[in-house]
Amino acid sequence: MTPKLLKSFLADRTGATAVEYGLLVSLIAVGLLAGLSNFSEALKDMLNMIAGKVEP
């Protein structure tokens, strides 16, 4: 590789931005999965309680 090409390759930061966005998206996805799994159990319990009170 020529020094000029190597210098331009090391100065290029477009890939770093894509990696940062990927990390942010994965962190948000993990948070959503953890929150929704807790919410789904609470929702299931509430719906079972309502179904128990509705049935004669």
Described by strand count, sense and barrel closure, the largest sheet is: none
- Give the SSE order as H and E letters: HH
Structural class: mainly alpha
Terminal-residue CA separation: 80 Å
**What are the low-pLDDT stretches, counting only 5+ consecutive residues below 50?**
none
Strand content: under 5%
**Radius of gyration from the alpha-carbon trace, in angstroms:** 25 Å
- Which range best describes the helical content: under 10%, 10-25%, 25-40%, 40-55%, 55-70% or over 70%? over 70%
Indicate the overall shape: rod-shaped
Counted by DSSP, the helix tally is 2
DSSP E strands, number: 0
Indicate the mean pLDDT: 84
Descriptive report:
The chain has 56 residues and is mainly alpha-helical. It has helices at residues 3-11, 14-54. The radius of gyration is 25 Å and the shape is rod-shaped. The model has no long low-confidence stretch (mean pLDDT 84).
Produce the secondary structure layout:
Blueprint: H1 3-11, H2 14-54
Main attributes of the structure:
single chain; 56 residues; mainly alpha; 2 helices; rod-shaped
Summarize the structure.
The protein has 56 residues and is mostly helical. The chain has helices at residues 3-11, 14-54. It comes from Shinella pollutisoli.
